[in-house]
User: What shape does this take?
Amino acid sequence: MRSEKPYAELSPETVLDALEAAGYRADGRILALNSYENRVYQIGVDDGEPLVVKFYRPGRWTDAAILEEHAFSHALAAQEIPVVAPLGADGESLHVHAGFRYAIFPRRGGRWPELGAAAEREWVGRFLGRIHRLGAAGAFSHRPRLNSEELGRKSRDYLLAGNWLPEYLADKYEDLTDELLGEVERQTAGWRGAALLRIHGDCHRGNILWTYAGPHFVDLDDCQTGPAIQDLWMLLAGGRQEMRSQLRDFLAGYEQFMPFDRGELALIESLRALRMIHYAAWLARRWHDPAFPKAFPWFAEPRYWEDHYRALEEQLGAVTEEPIEL
Assistant: This one.
């Protein structure tokens, strides 16, 4: 049975006790970091740098899936690719305390990357090429595979079944998403023959931190099997011409280490459409968690759904346009 308050028992005392149970001596300093899917804390330790502890959302992943995430992170770090991997050897990086599964990470600071310069984009592209080169050299057994049915149809159906939309918009939303998802499914059939590999899976700018030494990648919680473009399109911003220019820079770095199939560019707007629908369903699925109504109060308002509907109307146009060409 799903807990209505999945983290109700995760008190500050439990958080500190969990770190100490893993062999570290906490000094009592604790700072909640910005995370909703999981709970993440920075904790001070005696005679050392603070550590970051991530408590996995109960029931979301199997132990095997979490350990596969950790193993992927460790393999990338071993190749000196700047990812933040959990502490502990593979198989010893997942801990359990008071019924919560958690992992411990070194603290890595940094700022949100603007990626406004071509050199910065090329730098990120080089590391993504290296991530995908290693990702293509193996396969996941327990992580999910990018799936338009799961992200699209099932997410849309969940929203409609839960009566999340205002009554005056529900039928129009169903008709619009039927048309949009039909086009997306046509566009993404077989992922257009793209090679599928192990990818970060949620590679937006919030999961890249920038320091004087350059970028490093965090939060492989959504690593999965999918086409390479999934780790590139979320880094793009602006109009088509701006995105075209940005893509050229990312790929200038990427293709130093990994070939890229230009046919995958035709997947970008369909992937964006799937993410838009899935994001709304994610908020609905997590609404029982008290952190979500506090953080996203606008989600329950008609105005949100009106804006969401208009955004999907525009996205239908984007999906049916000719894809970006480089």
